[in-house]
Amino acid sequence: MRSTRMLPFLGVIGLVVFWYIGVFVEVVDPVLLPSPVDAGTAIWNGMTGGGLLNDFLRTIERTTYSIVIAAIIAIPLGIFLGSSENLYRSVEFIVDFFRSTPASAVFPLFLVIFGVGDETKVLVASFGAALVILFNVSYGVMNARKTRLLAAKVMGASKMRVLTDVMLLESLPQTFVGLRNGVSLALVIVIVAEMFIGSVDGLGYRIINAQMLFEMPDMYAAIFVAGALGYGFNFLFLMIEKRFVHWSGK
Amino acid sequence: MIQTSPDTRPRSAPHVTIRGLSKSFGPAVIYDDFDLDIPRGEFVSIFGPNGCGKSTLINMIAELIPRDAGEILIDGQRIRDVRFGYVFQNYREALFPWLRSIDNIRYPLKFLNMSKGEQRERVDKLVEYFGVKIDLNKYPYELSGGQQQLVSIMRSLVVEPEILFLDEPFSALDYEMTLFMRDQLQKVFQETGTTMVLVSHDLEEAIYLADHILLLSRGPAEIADFVPFDLPRPRDAGTLTDDTFVQVKAHCLEIFQREVRKG
Of A31, A98, A187, B130, most Cβ neighbours within 10 A? Predict the structure, then answer.
């Protein structure tokens, strides 16, 4: 048990060793590939007063706003649409179409409409995440186990009670799938948006800035922190799901 | 256990009356002008060839699915005005996994206008009656299949139903559990006198539990026979080798095979 729990670290150690070898034999220009220690130092320095921490927090803030806005709009709407299959079928094409449209493609449009401020970044990310959540919530409601709905009905539950007591809870596992996919997408969009014109902070801004200044350790540091952030968001939602949707997958 | 006031209505009056029932699924006519009386306080098992509409019948009585035509009355009332229980074959999908087992059992009481205290009392009484040894604070998915179906049956009984419908309730259980559950059900039936209607694909089980076995023919379904079986209760393993049981089983099997060949 103890040995299997250590397995993930093997891969990480392997990667670092591989990286060291790459630096040592100079497979690429040393300027483009700093050593793991240099990158680590850049993370440490950046997080302890070097500005990386601030960018990190700004990206968290934007992504959090995005996912909250997306959830507030998409969850009730998804329940509403999903509770009537005919209703969902009538908007399915629109949802699928915009869900398939890369959110980054509408970013310039949002820039024109909402300006270069923070709102635009947050709203584009919300837009992308909301469609993913909407789609999953609707399907969660529509795919509620028929037997369970009938069971509630024979016990005397009204249509409203069936919705609140059964459908909502039935859709929760799928809702969390939507939230996890949504937050990943929101992070992607926020980082891309931060690379665009008018940005003054955020991990995306930091990455593009470090690239232009050729400060490679800083750039690697920001990339790793962005990775950690994505992983952290996913992990957070998994933990929440495990806590509140204990029956998921059972 | 539960019903304290004795049922004063004459036992001879039918509990469920079905008149002129018709139902089709697309081109397949399942019922066409079907009549049936289900006697009060009796255990009726429904048996017949696959697809003849056994489950469809109790689903229509319970108004889980609509009928095309005809009238179904329980004591002259619509089913929605009657306290009844329904046990699904698929307990895994019928129980609520987000509620603890004990709360699953309590759930139908929410619709009965009872205080929290009364609800708890009612559930406690039922749990005690069944002598349940499982931990009902567990979630359904933490229980074995048989335990889940037991919870499901308790949930259907907690409202003290006048009539109980069971749709192949034991078909997903192993043999040992099936035997145990049959006897639990028989005990409840004997002590409460609740009218019970069981759909079964197991002839032995259908007869073992029944006062009457309703044999259905195929498409459109008709009453092939309504076979009485009146061996005294409690019935046990010995019942299965009793001469009357063997004769009734042979008779039912003969009719069943005749109907299967017709189809």
Answer: A187
